[in-house]
Amino acid sequence: MKCESRNLTNGECVQIVVLHEGWRYRRLRERFGISHTSVSRMMERYKETGNHSRRPGQGRRRVTKPVQDRFLRLRILRQRYVTTRSLQSKLEDVHNVRISCRTVRQRLKEGNLFLTSLVNGWDKRFLDLYQGILAVSAATTPFFEKI
């Protein structure tokens, strides 16, 4: 039988603990489609802790600390037209932490923030030009004459 690599659900863990009394690891492996070492590890964890759930803290550790995540969120709120590259380099300069641009985007996404995209700066140049035209026309022509 082919064993698949996956995490057991809580229900499966409870079933393994209950069925373990009369069943061998090999039979449990065949029943749930997992390796016998997975069954063995789960039973060891149950004997050690008295609990069938996964241990906390499993998985990859984060590269950035909450202070550095906050730094990225504040920087994007203060400068809306900043790039991930500039955020990455600023974080490295200030906090001496090297992260990828993808990590910068993920940290911003966790805070429900997204980068405002500019296509080669054309949007900002157009906005500056438009505001300049409005300022000139407002200075030369009274508001009521425009209507």
From TrEMBL:
InterPro entries: Homeodomain-like_sf, WH-like_DNA-bd_sf
Cellular component per GO, a single term: nucleus
Protein name as it appears in the record: Transposase
Upper classification of the organism: Eukaryota, Metazoa, Ecdysozoa, Arthropoda, Hexapoda
Localization (cell): Nucleus
Major location category of this protein: nucleus
Entry-linked Gene3D superfamilies: Winged helix-like DNA-binding domain superfamily/Winged helix DNA-binding domain
Highest taxon of source: Eukaryota
